[in-house]
Amino acid sequence: MPPSAVSAPEPNIDSPNIPTFAVPPTIGDIEQMNGLPNIHPVMVPQTVPTAPGTSTRFSLKGPANSISFWNLHGTGEGVPLSDMRIKKFSGLAGPDDVVLERHGCQIMLHVNWPGYKEWRSPLRTRNQKCKTSVAATRGTLAHRVALRMQRFIEDQKNEPQPEEWVVGEGGIELDNLLLLRLVQITQGAWRAEFAVM
């Protein structure tokens, strides 16, 4: 059954209920992503392989957290990464909200894009303000995720290309992506979740 428009529960960094959103797309969905227009955003399916012992050493000390990025234009969850890259936050709900205040100054961002090797990159979650380190805002975090995704796409140029979900020239570009949410997977690691529009 083809997926409907992306929807999710009320965003809350402290929410203990993190549902599974990564539903594999249908063949029709893949065809849409390869050039045909998409009426509704299609969730990018991701799995997160865990190295032996990782989940034990870095296991969560409490319920998993998540950060959602809601669109103010009535389209639900998900903001264009192209807007976030240039700090165009007019469509982002709560861009000045402080997030990850109780976490470290850096997290490890995970992207496990279908057909490619797992990709990780450190992501700063603090800003320097008046010689003091303060937690980043939702807008700043979205901007930094957009820059990392741009780098992820560039890094795949010389990698073997999958048959589906191809990123880069002729495939899915930054302009095609919505940032839905960040979901905590271990104590210091977060997975970015996206949809293709």
In short:
By secondary structure, the protein is α+β, with helices and mostly antiparallel strands. It has four helices and eleven strands, in the order αβαββββαββββαββ. It is globular.
> Count of helical segments?
4
- Please state the CA-atom Rg, rounded to the nearest Å: 16 Å
The rounded distance between the terminal residues' Cα atoms is: 18 Å
Instruction: Give start-end ranges of low-pLDDT stretches.
Output: 1-12, 14-37
Output mean pLDDT. 79
User: Which band does the percent of strand residues land in?
Assistant: 15-25%
SSE topology string: HEHEEEEHEEEEHEE
So what's the overall shape?
Answer: globular
Helix content: 10-25%
Would you report the number of β strands? 11
SSE blueprint and pairings:
Layout: H1 27-33, E1 42-43, H2 54-57, E2 66-68, E3 70-71, E4 76-77, E5 79-80, H3 81-85, E6 106-111, E7 119-124, E8 126-129, E9 132-135, H4 138-155, E10 177-184, E11 189-196
Parallel strand pairs: 6-11
Antiparallel strand pairs: 1-11, 2-10, 3-4, 5-10, 6-7, 8-9, 10-11
Walkthrough of the structure:
- With 197 residues, the chain is an alpha+beta fold.
- The protein has a domain of 134 residues.
- The protein contains 4 helices and 11 strands.
- The strands form 3 sheets. Strands 1, 2, 5, 6, 7, 10 and 11 form a 7-stranded mixed β-sheet that branches.
- The chain is globular, with a radius of gyration of 16 Å.
- The two termini are 18 Å apart.
Notable traits:
alpha+beta, 17% helix, single chain, 197 residues, two-stranded antiparallel ribbon, disordered N terminus, seven-stranded mixed beta sheet
